[in-house]
Description:
Elements: E1 4-15, E2 18-29, E3 33-37, H1 44-51, E4 59-64, E5 67-68, H2 73-78, E6 80-83, H3 95-105, H4 111-120, H5 136-148, E7 154-158, H6 166-183, E8 186-191, H7 194-200, E9 203-208, E10 211-217, E11 228-236, H8 238-249, E12 254-256, E13 259-265, H9 269-278, E14 282-288, H10 293-301
Parallel strand pairs: 3-8, 3-9, 6-7, 7-8
Antiparallel strand pairs: 1-2, 1-4, 4-5, 9-10, 11-13, 11-14, 12-13
Helix pairs in contact: 4-5
Amino acid sequence: MSETAMELKQLKKKIGSKEIIKGLDFEIQKGEVFGFIGPNGAGKTTTIRMMVGLMGITEGEVVIQGQSVKSNFKKAIQEVGAIVENPEMYPFMTGMQNLKHFARMTPGITRERIDEVVGLVGMENAIKTKVGRYSLGMRQRLGIAQALLHKPSILILDEPTNGLDPAGIRHIRKYIRRLASEENVAVIISSHLLTEIELMCDRIGIIKNGEMIGFESVNEQDADDDGSRQIAIEAEPSDKAAELLKERHGIDVEMKEGFVAFEASKTFVPQIVTTLVNEEVLVYRVEVSKASVEDKFFDMIGENVIG
Ligand SMILES: Nc1ncnc2c1ncn2[C@@H]1O[C@H](COP(=O)(O)OP(=O)(O)OP(=O)(O)O)[C@@H](O)[C@H]1O
Ligand SMILES: [Mg+2]
């Protein structure tokens, strides 16, 4: 059973006469990693600033664990840990001193909890080093640790991997996946780096000009998704398989490294396999390529230029 962590209801933001956010409506579940993606200026940061109370809501609601950010700000915000813009750290203090400093400002954070978050982001070895000597990636990790101190049920990260090297991105990805699965935290990550979102998220929502223009599950392939995919079948005899595909299904195939390869909709695969099996072709393996988030993104925003 999934449980709603956060709900946006017709959320709008107007600055002057300009409507920047035009009525967002969606939910994020506990344990879900949600990628909030869109081109530069789409409204990601503005939405996040409203979610965490850094900016007033013009119209609509953000509801966190049943509490409205507008009418019950204190209770709602207790459930949130966030990094919006660069996390504030004191460079002359060590990572541990920084965490202790933040812990003092929030009641109920124990020394055990501090050690726990340090472990969660893999900072054990660097926690006694002054933050001024940290690399960008280490600083980001410490920022995440700090945002997690009070055990929020929602973690919101605006462009968390900005400026990180591939290894740094991989680390952050690992911690985020672990948080969602082990602590059942709902994680919202904004980015315009699509490939990284694809690896990290369960679902993405795409925003453009202040409007959500689509949602996509990243890992599961939707049953009604009839986009064209690369399909490769390992079958014996392969020439007979190729003939049958041409005759019965009108599909032209190529032979690639022993596989019969072609393009078709995924929904077509069961019929093709049935044909082969009925004709006593031995089917060893069927591979269907994933539609990449990047393809879906460009399909949806209908342009090839993103930030
Ligand atoms: N204080 C402000 N006054 C006027 N316009 C603003 C203000 N803040 C943001 N905007 C406008 O709102 C729109 C959305 O900006 P926002 O920063 O939310 O985009 P974003 O999706 O986070 O982009 P990026 O990927 O570049 O971070 C932009 O057109 C921006 O110019
Ligand atoms: Mg932004």
